[in-house]
Amino acid sequence: MSRKVNKIVKLITGLLIMVPLLCQLFTFEKFSAVITSAGIPPYLSLPIAIILVVVELTSLPFLIDMNMSKRITLTSRMAGFLSLGIMTVISFLAFVNGYAAVIFGATIKNVNSAAAIFLVFMMWILLICANLSTKKTAK
Questions:
Q1: CA–CA separation, 63 and 121 (whole Å)
Q2: Dist. CA 136–CA 4, nearest whole Å
Q3: C-alpha span between 86 and 56 (Å, rounded)
Q4: Any idea what the Cα angle at residue 87 is, between residues 37 and 105, rounded to 5°?
Q5: Residue 48 region, left (φ>0) first, then alpha (ψ -120 to 50), else beta?
C-alpha cells in the first residue's frame, strides 16, 4: 500500500471514529443510560462511557497522522483498537438484546443495531489497513 493511500485510509478511519465520538459527547449525560439499555449493568455504564470517549479521542492523533514520538504513536494506535473493541462489544450486546444501536449515544436514536455492527466492522477493516506498514513507516 502506498503512503498516499495509507494516509487516505487513516483519514477516513479517523472521520468514521469522530462521528460516534461527537454524537456521544453531544449527549454525554444520557450516554450511560443508553449503554445500560443495551444490557450493560448500571454500575459499569458510566465508567465504560468515559473510557470509550477517552480512548476514541486518544486514537485520533495516529489517524490524522500527527508528528509524534514513537511511544505516543503506539499508544494512539492501541487506543484505536481498544475503542473499536469496546464499540464492537456494545453493538453486539445491543443486537443480542434487541435494542437500537448505542454507539451514537442519545444523539442519533433508533439506528438499526445491525447497521451499527456493519459500520463497526467497516471501521475494523479500515483500521487494520491503516496500521499496515508502508516502506517509509516500516523503519
A1: 17
A2: 11
A3: 10
A4: 50
A5: alpha
Determine phi and psi for 128, rounding to 5 degrees.
-65, -40
If one counts every other C-beta atom within 10 angstroms of the C-beta of residue 117, the result is 18
Judge contact between 131 and 17, C-beta under 8 A: no
Give the type of residue at 108: I
**pLDDT, one tens digit for every residue, the chain (139 residues):** 788 888 899 999 999 999 999 989 998 888 888 888 888 899 999 999 999 999 999 999 999 988 889 999 999 999 999 999 999 999 898 889 888 888 888 888 788 888 889 999 999 999 999 988 755 554 5
